[in-house]
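On to my pick:
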Amino acid sequence: MNTRLLLPALLLCLPLAACGNHDADKAAPATGKADSPSAATSSVGKSVQEATDRARAELAKKNISVSNGHQDKAEITPQGELLINGKTVTTTAAQRALLLDYRKQVEALAGAGMDIGVAGANLGVSAAGEALKGILSGDTQGIEARVNAEASKIEAQAKKLCELMPAMMAKQQVLAAELPAFQPYATMDQSDIDDCNK
């Protein structure tokens, strides 16, 4: 790996390290030793994981927007109601069940995206740590391979996210067929799936 490229990569990744858990840093006694790259990775990963856990909890409790840039704001409530511009659309029990099923699919997709975000934050800090270790020791052999191995895991997670999209499109189409008020918001098509897989 070209060591001239390592320093810029390190500098680009440092802002991620700055996002670590500052409360934990304050509580930990100073030892005079620099944190290891794995400690920095776990600190940033923990902070990002905590943020995504909060986001998941919030997503479960709040309305989910399905407007997709449409002029009329549409949301699905945690109870399975469809709101358009804040007004509840009258639905049957079967339609509410479809709305809840679609909402769960949206939550699953969002959750998969959050998992990728956590893995990306860990990879950024890990890459910075590997680069710094290589620069300081003069041993840069294998850094690229180790970082690429971790990156391939994130790529696998992204593929799993894309695998959720056909089911989401199918649920959206069923919902649009059963609930006419939802039809303007059923904008997903095969190109969305194809783009994700690219």
User: Anything to note?
Assistant: The longest helix spans residues 93-137. Residues 3-19+36-61+97-197 form one domain.
